[in-house]
């Protein structure tokens, strides 16, 4: 009886649900840690807290992304996705313990483990997409997936609401994250099995060597290399905005830390809208012509945010607009990487 019910939905739908819940947990837990540490150390240390949490979250992506790409090429991407979701459930359970003991270093350790799980999940999430949908639907599917991702980021600002309604009870909030992780485990096992890509590339503990090898491979395809670099720049820009949003809100707009957290909602709302529109404009093809237009839009919007940095009514629409152009910038690049990557190295290049 259960199998027909599961098969009512496509594997792409279950993939979307799985990555949505993972992104939701990432963003809720990161904000919970920031608010927890601000409680411990004071709002005046907000810059230091955000910088340290940002650095800790990025570190696993630098260390194991190439390794994760090799895993995605050697083993079933569906099995890797299911494994990482079980790992997420364990990490979120440990997160409850860290908040129970009010451990700052324990919270940082959980953040590191959570980032490592996400880094393992990423290449398989993107690499499996061409295995689940026809090539002429990749741009549209990327638009849908990215919009779901940023819908998760929007929902991730629910962390501010959780902290509000629980009276800054971080244990209850982290239990919510554990429940979300459990649902993600269930949805990951509903994705149909996909066979390994058949890569024979060996693991290399020298992560910088793997990154260099991947860049050397993509250098044979100049447009692919530019797409990879452009996509990486988007991630850098997103991290920069996330790092500075709460300090900007408290210092320039004179908001509280929790009110500043709601600005993430506006940015993510814009990115989700821009992602969907980019997918619709691209249709059955990858429309790289959107990239320079969107990049210009991001630059102008950032300049205007600085110009009107003390005016909340001006900043609100500008934050949405910068997110909108960011979404339009990213979708064609991700779609092109998936379509143009050499087949046996697709997971590795996407990493």
3D structure, described in words:
Helix content is 80%, strand content 0%. It has 16 helices and no strands. The protein has helices at residues 2-6, 11-41, 46-74, 77-100, 104-127, 129-132, 138-156, 158-165, 170-188, 207-218, 222-251, 257-261, 263-282, 290-307, 312-340, 346-350. Helix 2 packs parallel to helix 7 (138-156) and helix 2 runs antiparallel to helix 9 (170-188). The longest helix has 31 residues, at 11-41. The radius of gyration is 20 Å and the shape is globular.
What general form does the structure show? globular
Distance between the first and last residues' Cα: 38 Å
Alpha-carbon Rg, integer: 20 Å
- Detail the poorly predicted runs: 344-351
- Counting DSSP E segments of at least 2 residues, the number of strands comes to 0
Reported for the largest beta sheet, the result is: none
Report helical residue fraction: over 70%
Q: Helices and strands, in N-to-C order?
A: HHHHHHHHHHHHHHHH
Portion in strands = under 5%
Number of helices: 16
Which structural class should the secondary elements be placed in? mainly alpha
What average pLDDT do the residues reach? Answer: 79
């Amino acid at each position: 009886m259960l199998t027909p019910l599961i098969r009512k939905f496509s594997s792409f739908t279950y993939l979307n649900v799985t990555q949505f819940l993972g992104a939701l947990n990432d963003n809720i837990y990161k904000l919970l840690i920031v608010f927890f540490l601000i409680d411990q150390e004071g709002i005046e240390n907000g810059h230091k807290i955000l910088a340290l949490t940002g650095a800790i979250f990025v570190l696993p992506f630098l260390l194991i992304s190439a390794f994760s790409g090799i895993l995605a090429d050697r083993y079933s991407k569906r099995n890797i996705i299911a494994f990482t979701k079980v790992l997420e459930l364990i990490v979120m359970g440990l997160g409850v313990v860290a908040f129970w003991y009010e451990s700052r270093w324990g919270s940082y350790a959980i953040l590191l483990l959570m980032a490592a799980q996400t880094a393992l999940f990423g290449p398989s999430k993107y690499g499996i997409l061409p295995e689940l949908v026809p090539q002429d639907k990749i741009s549209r599917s990327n638009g849908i997936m990215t919009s779901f991702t940023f819908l998760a980021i929007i929902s991730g600002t629910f962390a501010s609401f959780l902290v509000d309604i629980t009276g800054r009870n971080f244990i209850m909030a982290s239990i919510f994250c554990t429940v979300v992780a459990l649902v993600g485990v269930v949805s990951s096992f509903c994705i149909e099995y996909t066979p390994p890509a058949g890569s024979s590339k060996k693991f290399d503990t020298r992560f910088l060597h793997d990154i260099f090898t991947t860049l050397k491979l993509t250098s044979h395809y100049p447009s692919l290399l530019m797409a990879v670099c452009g996509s990486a720049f988007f991630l850098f820009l997103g991290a920069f905005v996330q790092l500075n949003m709460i300090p900007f809100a408290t210092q320039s707009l004179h908001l509280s830390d929790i009110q500043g957290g709601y600005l993430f909602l506006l940015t993510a709302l814009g990115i989700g809208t821009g992602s969907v529109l980019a997918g619709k404009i691209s249709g059955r093809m990858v429309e790289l012509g959107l990239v320079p237009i969107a990049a210009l839009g991001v630059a102008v919007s950032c300049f205007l945010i600085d110009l009107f940095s003390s005016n909340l009514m001006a900043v609100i629409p500008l934050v949405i607009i910068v997110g909108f152009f960011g979404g339009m910038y990213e979708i064609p690049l991700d779609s092109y990487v998936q379509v143009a990557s050499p087949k046996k190295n697709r997971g590795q290049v996407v990493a």
